[in-house]
Amino acid sequence: MDSLQIANRSFHSRLMVGTGKYASFVQMRDALAASETEIVTVAVRRVNLDHVEESLLDYIDTERYLLLPNTAGCHTAEEAVRTARLARAAGLSNWVKLEVIPEDGTLLPDPIATLEAAAILVKEGFVVLPYTTDDHIVAGRLVELGCATVMPYGSAIGTGQGLPNPDRLHRIMDTVNGRVPVVVDAGIGAPSDAALAMELGADAVLVNTAIAKAQNPVQMARAMALGVTAGRSAYLAGRIARTPVARPSSPQTGLIGTSL
Amino acid sequence: MQVRVNGQILQFPDYTRVSNLLTFLHLQPEGVAVERNRVVLEREQFAQVVLTEGDELEVVRFVGGG
Questions:
Q1: Beta-carbon contacts below 8 Å between A and B
Q2: For a Cys staple, B35 with which of A56, A143, B58, B60, CB 3.0–4.6 Å?
């Protein structure tokens, strides 16, 4: 059985799905089901003191999905650590998707602050899944610190630009060398991007915007699942090498009208 | 007694506990987390911890995110 192993848990699905940006909680619930994901990300925010809100958790079956709280919105290591501690107290596990992103509008991670926060959280017993740059040195350091995965971006969050730098991701996979899963997070715009990430050897992908903002999020969730499965199968099957020389697929002998 | 909850100043009677605060805000203890003066409380502490003048509280829950 080809399963994804993260920390002490094993998963059938290699697609993680975010819960942001859906038109409604019902649409989100149906998209999660269609994606067949087993890991869903959530954010941590202040409760509204002025009126009672519907709870996201009423639409997420926590028997079926592992909740992975993120530290999105945190600009410093200190804020991320605080948010992770709150998430652990609010939730059902000690897993956290660590994000430390400076307030510069790029949504690209701060790798130095991410390393600082990861060191603290690993010491405190968290299972840390850090969102990181596509830099292999940073990825290697995160593994050495004891992170449970590394999650490099394909491209910036919400851009749907796919994987413009597959060589960088390859380098990360070489550096990580199977010690922890590599999860391509952010930038995936279509199932072909998800499939490419998996073909390159990623262990999983995380998708939010490309599903939530599709014309039909439920259908796109299913399509993403198929893309991930196809890409994984292709990776295991081993694709052919690229060559500049054309080679016919049909026999060159036995053609009609030729002299012997 | 004045405390600050999620940046907002609120008045409560003396001896208000965290669990009373959540009831006042119509919140179920499941699914929320509370930080008091930068220390995260365990859910089991909600019924025990008594608020004091000037406490800074953060009350959070999960929302959609990626």
A1: 99
A2: B58
